[in-house]
Amino acid sequence: MALRTYNVGVIGYGASAKVFHIPLLEVVPELNLYAVVQRHPTPDNDASKDHSGIKSYKTAEEMVKDASMDIVVVTTTPATHFELAKLALENGKHVVVEKPFVPTSGEADELMILAKKHQKLLSVYQNRRWDSDFLTIQKLIKDNILGRIVEFETHFDRYKPTLAGSKPWKTRPEPGGGAIYDLGIHLIDQIVVLFGLPEKVTAFLGSQRTDNPDGYEDACTILLHYNDMMTTVKVAVVSPEAAQLRFWFHEDCQEAHLTQGKKPGDTGFGIEPEHWHGTLTTVEDGNLVPKSYQTVQPLNYKTFYTQFAQAVAGKGEVPVKAEDARSVIRLVELAKQSSAEERTIK
User: Fold this and answer.
1) Residue 113 has pLDDT above 90, yes or no
2) pLDDT tens string 274-302
3) Which of 116, 147, 182, 270 has a beta carbon 3.0–4.6 Å from 300's, enabling a disulfide?
4) Average pLDDT in the 49-62 region?
5) How far is 260 from 269, CA to CA, in rounded Å?
6) How far apart are CA 109 and CA 132, in angstroms?
7) pLDDT band at 171 (very low <50, low <70, confident <90, very high)
8) CA gap 88, 71 in Å, rounded
């Protein structure tokens, strides 16, 4: 039996599309890069030249009318996610939305209702679920190697005290902007995957940079309270560490490999160097014993699109459920409320 393939249209042709989506869906046999929406191509930035044979559209409205297309991937700025995902669903397409899902839980609810009404799949690209360091932590917890966890910290810290070049959406005070929607969303999602939804939220959002005339929030500390455990999410831009920690955090090497033009299947893709291995400290005969712990071999980000293609074919669930992404957006809303009101939110 011939392999069924699904045509994919990508809205947007910035770094998100070029690094995190197109290279991955291109290596999934069931998916075919069919079209790209790029409003302003230039001689040195033209999707139709980079990917010969695709259809090129100037607007999403044009692309979603194409009856040959099965799946739409939204890679534009967060403030546009709701309207573009809604447009695609209303025109009978399955939809993948880059994180953050949408700025508000109310918008997420409306999209889920639309997806159900039109019997189409809706998923959110929370790719950090397939980071090798996170998968290692997940395995340690599953195998009960860590024992009872009373406190859990996860960081995405960098040393970028000044802005370079133009200010992207993530550093503007607009819907879906700021550190909590950019990097915080990944860390909150990972905690919910590991431990479920918390009982209370206490958050502190603000700016660590001094060149901040617009008042955007480039850092956050979020406490997620559980019955017998506390988890902490931290995003910082003024963290002068030579080697940033993750759980504490270092950035997964898949992003660097994709930026370099490598793809899943290439030799060494997603494999962390030994000096990135974590240190696991255990108690042996009453003594604390630190040991290097090898990172698990990653499933890699391709897994997202492999699972999504299987779901479209009716062979499983989407890799990230819209309901789960909606719960994370709701936690973001509670964190913003907690910070603004200077109190813990139940």
Assistant:
1) yes
2) 665 677 776 777 777 777 777 776 668 99
3) 270
4) 96
5) 11
6) 31
7) low
8) 9
Q: For residues 249 and 141, give the distance between their C-alpha atoms in angstroms, rounded to a whole number.
A: 17
Rounded distance, CA 306 to CA 302, Å? 6
Asked if residue 24 lies in contact with residue 45, where contact means CB atoms within 8 angstroms, the answer is: no
Summarize the chain as % helix, strand, coil (round to 5). Answer: 35, 25, 40
Residue 251: pLDDT band (50, 70, 90) is very low
Determine the residue type at 138: Q
- Continuous segment of H or E residues that includes residue 311: helix 302-312
Q: What are the CA-CA distances from residue 160 to residues 218, 255, 329 (Å)?
A: 10, 18, 26
Residues 234 and 149: their CA atoms lie apart, in Å, by 18
Q: What does the angle CA 239 – CA 79 – CA 39 come to, to the nearest 5 degrees?
A: 105
**Comparing C-alpha atoms, which of 239, 242, 241, 273 is closest to residue 256?**
273
Instruction: Of 93, 97, 90, give the one whose Cα is nearest residue 12.
Output: 97
Beta strands in the chain (DSSP E): 6-11, 31-37, 55-57, 71-74, 94-98, 122-125, 151-157, 200-206, 219-225, 230-236, 278-284, 287-293
User: What would the mean pLDDT of 88-113 be, rounded to a whole number?
Assistant: 98
Strands 219-225 vs 151-157: parallel, antiparallel or unpaired? unpaired
pLDDT tens-digit profile of 13-38?
999 999 999 999 999 999 999 999 99
Whether 296 contacts 136, CB under 8 Å? yes
Average predicted confidence (pLDDT) for the chain: 89
Q: Which residue has the tokens 């599309």?
A: 17
Six token digits for residue 246: 């993750």
Contacts of 64 (CB under 8 A, 6+ apart): 9, 72, 87, 88, 91, 93
The model's pLDDT over 296-309, given as tens digits with 9 standing for 90+, comes to 766 689 999 999 99
Tokens of 242: 């030579």
Does the pLDDT at position 139 exceed 60? yes
